[in-house]
Amino acid sequence: MNEVWTIAEQSGGALKAVSFELLARGRQLADKLGVKLASVVLADSISDEALRELIERGADEVLCVEHPALAGFVCETFAKALVALARERTPQVVLAAATSSGRTLMPHIAVTLHAGLTADCTELDIEEGTGLLLQTRPAIGGNIMATIKTPDHKPQMSTVRPKASRPLDRDACRTGSIERIALDPAFVERRVEVLGLERDVEGFENLEEAQVVVAGGRGLKKAENFKLVRELADALGGAVGASREAVDRGWTSYPHQVGLSGKTISPRLYVCAGVSGAIQHLAGIKTAETIVSINSDPEAGIHKLADFAVVGDLFEILPRLTKRIAERRAGVAEGACK
Amino acid sequence: MEILVAIKQVPDTDKVRMDPVTGTMVREGVDTIVNPLDLYAIELAIRLKEQHGGKVTAFTMGPPAADKALKEAIAMGCDAGVLVTDRAFSGSDTWATSYALSRAVAKMGRYDLILAGERATDGDTGQVGPCLAAWLDIPVLTYVGSLESADGGSIVARRLVEEGYQRVRAKMPCLLTVVKEVANPRLPTLRGKKFARQTALAVYGAGDLDADPACLGLKGSPTKVSKIFYPKVTRGGAMVKALDEAGTENAVDELVAFLEARDLIARDVIAREEIAGEGAQR
Asked: What is the nearest CA distance from A194 to chain B, expressed in angstroms?
């Protein structure tokens, strides 16, 4: 029977958390279909030990394509490698992460494979009777949900937002195969050259992979006050986000921007202060697990989406909250025995 | 430099409906604008033309009324517009849309660069850009935050990715999808608006394209919408008022208790070790 595939992501030989989240989704689908679940890894070099974790977290087999040209993401090279593998082994479902690379790679291979692709799925299921993949996604800023299927084309492909599901616990008893596949050198794209990856760039923020994001908006009134948001983020060990207004006013840089023209995120906790909750902003955080809003306007749109809303003056609330959380965490650290 | 800018006309409000029968969006009766992310692509195209000379052509697929979006692009500084419109295209998913656009590009002739916004604010898939590049067999760079250079037959771009910026060189012709920080869009000038009014758009119908009719529109689309529903937007969470000193203390107490109950403070929820690499480091 045709397999379910998930496309793992790695960096420097270390698998990213989203690889395991995808397996949790894929496991459910494969079990319903009664087929095997394979995790496909494209890497320059990665150890058996690292790949073994994919099996312990749900995969029945690991297909690892290795080549030095796979060190950095080049859409065309990755696409050719995957297309060749998919043509040979004809999976019925392929899931990838809705990341900067997944959202580039999957559309590219959908064209070549003449496959249907649905972006940013929040729910995946198998239709009774037909065995087709049911893909549910938000559209138009999350105001509409659409369930989409691909009746006549294979594979059925989806991207899934990072953090939208939890990885399965590691199970050391699980067994599976690891197969290493060499990349056909003809697949290496000659027109594109990766010059490097700039990390720790000033003003950069990795919001997509953060478990906690604390964001500030126009209610902060001026650039200096943005530090109140940074301090709470530090206390919670989270990343710093911002509304479009805060970025447009120059209080912080664009990589911090959350919303339709910024980043779409699904952290475990999203706290925002002085953010009114324009629909463009809400679209970026709808899938956050827990939302806390702090805004002096009881009618602010953000409060309606919040799991916990505080109506009040953020300049009074934020410093106290930061202090309390810092104390808690310090207390926990002291009391903890590791 | 010959630059093509792929743009999309999108609804201006959140009052968009979807037809529950066909599962496609109903665009009638809603004000439309140029997709806000496409404005960054238009701006970058105009700046490149100002630096290197050449011509910028905006193109879009949509209903006849999408000519308004092209006129706006021209008013900003594009030189020409191509409207790809035909009933045969209606109901296209990203696969069929990108196919039709690729056939339109083939008809437009030689180009060095295709620019587009990273995604459109209505469908919000971000798929048409990479799909179009696949059809045309040209390199694609997505999430471009800045261009370092664009000469000597290649471009050097910085892509905004999860871990930072990926610097990439790509041979032209190539396709870039851009994010907000690439350029701050200018407003149309009066002169631009006048020029836009005087500029006739090229209009391509399905019959004008060298395209397989079976690959167009709803029937050419691999994905089918099977159900539409309106999600509950409100979560109905707790609301506490912190209007005075006592209220603020109480609100902070309750919030801390709430976060603890959800296990969001006590443990190291951040579990940074779980996230591989340095990606999670701030």
From this structure: 4
B51 phi/psi in degrees, rounded to 5: -80, -45
Give residue-wise pLDDT tens across range B95-152: 999 999 999 999 999 999 999 999 998 888 999 999 999 999 999 999 999 999 998 8
Q: What is the DSSP letter of A72?
A: S
Domain that holds residue A265: 212-335
Residues A139 and A253 in one domain: no
Residues A99 and A264: their CA atoms lie apart, in Å, by 10
Sign of the four-CA dihedral B135, A73, A92, A63: positive
Residues 268-327 of A with CB under 8 A from B: 268-269, 279-280, 282-283, 286, 290-292, 298, 303-313, 316-317, 320-321, 324-325
- Gap from A244 CA to chain B (nearest CA, Å): 11
| ipTM of this complex | 0.89
For residues A22 and A165, state if they share a domain. Answer: yes
In a domain, A206, yes or no: no
Domain shared by A96 and A171, yes or no: yes
**Residue A323 CB-density burial (10 A; 0-12 exposed, 13-18 middle, 19+ buried):** middle
Touching B: A residues 170-229, CB under 8 Å: 189, 191-201, 204-206, 208-212
Domain shared by A24 and A154, yes or no = yes
Question: Which of A 107-166 lie inside 8 A of B, CB atoms?
Answer: 107-112, 114-120, 134, 138-153
3 state SS of B109: coil
Mutate to test the interface with A, among B19, B35, B39, B95 (most CBs of A within 10 A): B95
Assess whether A146 and A270 both reside in one domain: no
* CATH number of the domain where residue A80 is located: 3.40.50.620
Contact A192 B168 (CB under 8 A): yes
Residue A193 lies in a domain: no
> Which of the listed residues A187, A202, A225 is the one where a domain comes to its end?
A187
Q: What is the pLDDT of residues A124-182, one digit of tens each?
A: 999 999 999 999 998 776 777 899 999 999 999 999 988 878 899 999 999 999 999 99
Longest distance between any two alpha carbons in chain A, whole Å: 62
